[in-house]
Structures
1.
Amino acid sequence: MTINEFRERINVVLYNSKDRVISTLRILNLFVSASALVVLASYYGFHHESETAELLVTLVKSTFFFYVIQYVTKILYEFHPIQFIRKTWFEALVMSILVVEGLSDLLTGQLFIGRFIQSLGFDSISGFYTIFIQGYFFTVVVAELVRGGRILPRIRLNPAVIFIISFLGIITAGTVLLMLPEMTTAKGGMNALDALFTSTSASCVTGLMVEDASHFFTFKGHVVLLLLFQLGGLNLITFGSFLVLASRFGLGIRQHDVIEDFVNRDNFNASSGLLGKVIAWCIGIELVGAVAVQLCWGSSLGNFGLGKQIFYSVFHAISAFNNAGITLFKGGLTHGSLVENWAIHWIVTLLVFFGALGMVAIFDLFDPSRLRERMAQPWKRIGFATKVALYFSLGLVFFGAVSFWFLEKDGTLAGMSVFGQLTTSVFQSTTRTSGFNTVNIGAVGIPMQFIFLILMFIGASSSSTGGGIKTSTFAVVLADVWRTIRGLDHVQLFQRTIPDILRSRAYSVLLFFIVGNTLSVFLLTMTESHILEMPDRGVMDLLFEEVSAFGTVGLSTGITPMLSPWGKLILILSMFIGRVGTLTVAFALGGRLKGRHIKYPEGHTMVG
């Protein structure tokens, strides 16, 4: 009997039990991964005696054994095991790492990767890669259950509601983690409201902070912040993959319109493997940015060890690309060691710009297949959505930079070299979508603060990590105004006619943003009367803070730590609505829409 014949007989014997065993393992995987994450949160979040800590570590290590057994079982049930391993190469790689770690632990009593990470200078991060492994398996099993087609069809929720719940889950988990004693230097841990504010700010990639991130949070707290704005930045885009998947199980195409920040419908529905592609490109860009930052620190980090330097590089690269604006330096990039490090400023500027440009535009501009196609067929141009994102983003950067130089050359730019003034002007204009700043925003004159309000209100592009009404909304409204002035029959932009539905959505977003900001500022004038009573503060500070929160920007004149509990709650709601999208919230609250094919007689009234 040959090996293949023996293998075939084994498969025939195992075939009847395959679905039952694999399904059981998936359920067990979900509980094992979730339990391991809870154990890890307890291990890293609290101070434990040595015996308790050793017990918790043993529990986590035991889950690795389960994952290996599960993967081997899957291989046994496959008719073509080699092809299965090739198809699941990443999971096979993780399993290989777990086997190596298990053997290393049995033979030496230490984890091999943990020792390697410590050798780089990471004294506290040696066990954090286990969080990635547990999170990976938890995510994989959820994806497998969804892909199986047994769970998703039973979910009768509006996609907008599911999207909002996903963000609420990230924010809630972040709040609980930040309240743990080991995450901050404060005795007893961070209070619930401040933890909720910080978690919302990080998850919604806003960057407004009630406490100084550099000194208030421990290294473990910094890792939590990093995970929050990485997950928050990716969640908006990767949720598009879920909608593509959901459409295969009967969700109407009409429901895709509830997320105004997603890619346009043509690219959206045609994208296969969007989730993996987005994650791969985002991580790739962040890695390139981290390497560039690492090479340009110079003397800015003083006597930091290599491990801490690498962590700072990764932290700031991810923060910049996700437009989070959170830094590990007191005062941000205005810190004395960074204020004239122009190389770092330009790297952050580029990362923020590409993060705010949007993945649709990045794919269209830089995807190798698109580049080869345009080289082979020169008559093909970049897509309409890419033109809107790229040209309007560049236009806003140019407008903001010129305005900043003209209005601040005798103010915050005074005393800088010509190159420094250019760098600072471009930096502050580009980072209108993030909370990074290289000058004291509170010292910026009122005229430039007013222009900042406009830039923050417009914000970034669709399918990006930034907020605001989006450049696409601004472009459509501007084109419609131009149509009205010129008396044209149709709204036209870049030799394309804008459909009525897009105009309607653009004006809806604009109106929601205006009403949302106006109502929030009105409430802040009542809850933050103590700030208005200060001699150097006024309504402009509240307006700036609110627009920054609603646009998920993170720039502040310095009043964030002064906010009352009610003021913090108002900004928390503003950051959340601004992140998930105004139309998303509207559709979620509106419930299921019923189509009505009724047209009433036209009405006419004077306008203007």
2.
Amino acid sequence: MSYQVLSLKYRPQSFYDVVGQTHVTETLVNAFKKERIAQGYIFTGQRGVGKTTTARILAKGLNCSASKNGQPCNDCTVCNEITESRNLDVLEIDGASNRGIEEIRNLRELIKFTPMNAPYKIFIIDEVHMLTNPAFNALLRTLEEPPAHGKFIMCTTDIHKVPATIISRCQRFDFNRLTIEVIRDTINNILAKEEIQADGASVDAIARKSEGSMRDALSILDQVIAFSSEQIVFEEVEKVLGLIPHDVYFGFTDAMKDRDNAGLLTTLAQIRNQGLPVEDVVTGLNKHVRNLMFATINDGLKAVEMNDDLKQQYIAAAASWEVRDLLRIAQVITDVETRIKRASQPYIMLEMMGLKLLEMDESVSIEQLLKNSSQQFGSSAQTAPPQKNKIKTNKTDTRTDTQSVKAGKQDNTIGPIANQDEINEPKKDYKTKNKAGISIEELKGKWPEIITSVTNLRTSIGMVLEHCVPLEFVGKKVQVGMVDQPRFNLDLLKNNKEIIEDVAANHVKQKIKIKFFTVEKDSQLAEELLKNVVPKNQVASTKTDPVVDRVLELFDGEILR
């Protein structure tokens, strides 16, 4: 007798033999118990999960005279004929080979005839998504109202290619991808029946390689048995399946963590010398990084199918990784994975990716960045030597160009800022003749209206302008002080000074120039400005959190609203 492959030899012959699809088998068994069998069924799912097998079992359950609750006896003539695909009342049609409208017309004629030696005439259409649109349309009427003795069972791996009009006329069952545990148990049962010894690592490797397909798993098992001796060992399975050892992945990520140039080159040379497929390496590396991220979470590896020894190896390796770093590495690998299939030099792309990852620095959280920046800022403020006042004179007036004063000093001075050369304290001689043609009191009276107009135009500028007060005119330029605001707000006003000047000109009916400067929060001048000068309706604080202020300053940000 010729050899029969394992996938056919151990093909399920009853609903109880189908593994991993209890939601389908239990529903069909209950339908038999309640005598609620539909006229059409459509089974969908990935390859090798039991769609066609279940269709044959359903056909036997319908036509077997000795069936009980849909379970065929598998001993009668009808059951044997269906198992051997030679029953005249159960016709299996390949949708890929019989996809035209003429074939469907013949099917419509055949279903009109009563069955020869069974209760039902059943049509099993495999790969039904391959039918043409005219063929689907020709099938609609017959599928919706077939003869009492007619049943349709359709199977497909691409349900999205089947028209909704066909699906709506059938009961749809989605077959699940089989888990590694289910495939492993099935392989162990078959090995016990075949009296073949195999270690656990070999069975796990076959189950993982099958990617949820039982037919693929049994085909791989056939191949491994043919290659191996009396006992299957993991080393032989690796050779047959071309599996990439996990040591390659761990060596790659360990080189990233330790900044080990030599270790990375050794791993890359191993990949090239062993002829490992680059696409498989990158895909496996992406899964490896994902496993490391899961390993950083308590019981995170429960979501990943792997043996206990490998889980412990991942947990030990993940202890030295930050999730933020792994996320960045995964992003780079994912980008390469999408492009490496079209690369003319995939090995070089893999090597460049490794060198790029080797140069990546560790991630730093914003909180830590702010903490370090604030510590450096405080340290530099404490150690900075005081500067003497520098006075500059000219023919028209006398003014202070730069000045540094300790915090809390009670005099009319300007507080310390980052760049003293850009900020001048206002002239102290308030008797200087005003050359602008408008008094400072008149400008102060118009100032709330100016702020409102600027706010309507640019909200962020108006919010900062609420903390500013015009103090005096020096020539035709008005000196405007800003109270209790960070330096980047002063830069915001300077960068948008022309907008403010245009708005002010519309209110005071003449062109004026504005010069902004900061006033130290604890100075006497600031207290007087906040108490006496700033209108009450403009005192509402827009002060933000210190952390937010620091973020805006570090990243040159802007508060929009």
3.
Amino acid sequence: MMKRPQPHSELASDRVFLYSPQDNDGRDTVAIGLIDVLARRGRHLDVFQPLAPASSDGCSSLDLLLRACADISNTASKGSVFDRKSHRAIDPNRFYLDTSFSRREIVSDFYESTTLKNVDYAVILGTDQSAVVHPNALCVDALLTADLQSPVLLVIDGRNRNAHDIAETIKACERAVSKAGSTVLGAFVSPCVSNVQEETRIELIDFALPVWFVPPANFDGSPKQAIESSVEAFRQSVDERQLLAALARPVDTPVTPPSFQYSLMESARRQKKTIVLPEGNAERVLAAANYVLDHGAADIILLGNEARIRRHAQDLNLSSLSQARVLPPDDPVMLKRMVPELVSLRASKGLDEAGARKLLEDSLYYGTMLVYLGVADGMVSGAVHSTADTVRPALQIIRTRSGEGIVSGAMFMCMECHVDVYADVALVPDPTAKQLALIAAQTARTASALGINPIIGFLSYSTLDSGTGPDVDLVREAVAIAHREYPELKIVGPIQFDAAWSPIVGKLKAPGNPYAGHVNVFIAPDLDAGNILYKSVERTSGATAVGPVLQGLRQPVNDLSRGSTVRDIVNTIALTAIGAQGAL
């Protein structure tokens, strides 16, 4: 991953996305001019292009800009190698066949690019429009700005267009980017003729961002001449101090499903932990374990018959499972360690050695003891077993954190453009007001650990002071406790879901409240509401539900839905590994 700028840096981010609705040389002129400005201030740059139509002669724009990086910033002499093969753009046709997978692939390509790791600034190019433009192209580029967590500079073609059309295009692009969750820092009109500049400025008088007008550069000569012409056109028309001020503007980066899911794997890799999977005979579990091992996100222990598991892995062509450790549930060495420990833990319940051995025939008790003894750092189960089966051994053996007393379940809801967190969705049927406040604090900690700045909404059937009755009174009391015991948290409640989620409704129902309409951590008043909430949103919106993360245990044990996909299991293994690092 590229180096992030230090706090004293003049730039707020280490990347910028050039977003253009048209295919023209103007975007490349701006890119070359931007490379020139930043290189003269000591930045070592590279160019990344997420999408580009496949062509027999390659991507000439990318070739030119890579050469501009090498020629202008002279980074090639400092160890970076500008290899076109390392800048693999996905063909839009393939992208539209499987958008969800392609978005994750683009995020992975960006962060794992060998050249980007050797520079400190990336210029990201929007889609090269082809002769046939996909109707979703503008929205796709907007989503990619959010996935890559990049602020945006718009580049609008000003040729043969009047001021009104240019201004409306800028506004439309800004709306698309903002809707996706990203931030526009300014706009270039390039190429542009001088006779529309003043009228365009008037049309944009309410557009509170800088706009620069760049005349045409000459791209008819050699690449060297094109670069020189672009630098000259940019230097003559762009106020560099104003541009640098725009690039220094602080921005909040969105957390989208692809960026969130990549961050799970990346965070897990940083401090590799060992996760035990007691359902070692389940095909989905084996496929997920293979993926995790292949990507180096965790070490894996599988419980079951080793010969059967190895044969199953071979039949499924899961080659990375050879790295997994397989433990049989009757392993005498492990049982010799486990039995006396389990007897000691459950002595007050009258458990004897025979009873302990009987319990340990259950793979979930066996896996939980592996975590308790430190052989594994965490456990994931539930693809075959129920939540109760998974949680019961954890509560009996691992137990809750000091001072918490309850375990709750938080679900990450990956929408198209952002990630929310819902709790409690798994464990506490009828929480007291104090427990509800604790669930909010647990969930805020979970969200923060995974890059989400928590704004907490305590859900109810009424908003703020608009309703009365025992149910809303309990939520109101929970809000008061949370304000008192966790003053650092951003909280609004009681609040209805629509007022918590929609800025428009939030302004109507909670005027002046800074958090209404911006909630991303939703605390349900009871388990019925929480479970119904996440499952209805998941099924009707197409959101991906990741979790639940069990909050409040001394060591991480996490539960799966029995309908979990391989991707769900991979995400939960990564979450468990992160929890084992002490982040959750």
